[in-house]
Design a protein that fits this description.
This protein is mainly alpha-helical and about 130 residues long. The chain contains six helices and no strands.
């Protein structure tokens, strides 16, 4: 990286490589905002100096990622996705299953459990007692 010019491509590549986070579909504004905030808070002289800090300091990398990710959780947070799961995807999965093994649902990145509980509640509302045996 050169001087003060913020090379977003380098930051995006580093973030994607180290934690899989991409900015496709959401634009670069959250990245620019997060970088500017962390550059100011760390006292880094410029974007190049901050990039070097990210390479050398794991804690600082985690601080940046915390700014760039959604840190909220609540019941029924994405109602359209939940409805799609319960009304379309689960019935499709059940119709194609050859055995009686349970359907396994992964809720990755949920911070305190509201999302998986929301799924369990929605399945229970749709399928009643049999939801426990899906």
């Amino acid at each position: 990286m050169r001087g003060d010019a913020m090379n977003l491509a380098a930051f995006k590549a580093l973030i994607k490589q180290r934690c899989g986070l991409t900015f496709e579909g959401i634009g670069e504004a959250p990245l620019v905002s997060g970088l500017q905030k962390r550059i100011t808070e760390t006292g880094a002289k410029n974007a190049s100096a901050y990039y070097a800090l990210l390479l050398a300091n794991e804690h600082e990398f985690h601080e940046l990622v915390a700014l760039l990710t959604i840190n909220e959780t609540y019941f029924y947070r994405e109602p359209e996705q939940l409805q799609l799961l319960v009304d379309c995807l689960i019935p499709r999965i059940l119709s194609r299953k050859q055995d009686r093994s349970p359907v396994r649902i992964l809720c990755a990145g949920c911070s305190s459990g509201e999302e998986p509980y929301s799924i369990a509640i929605a399945l229970r509302e749709k399928y009643g007692e049999s939801a426990a045996r899906l």
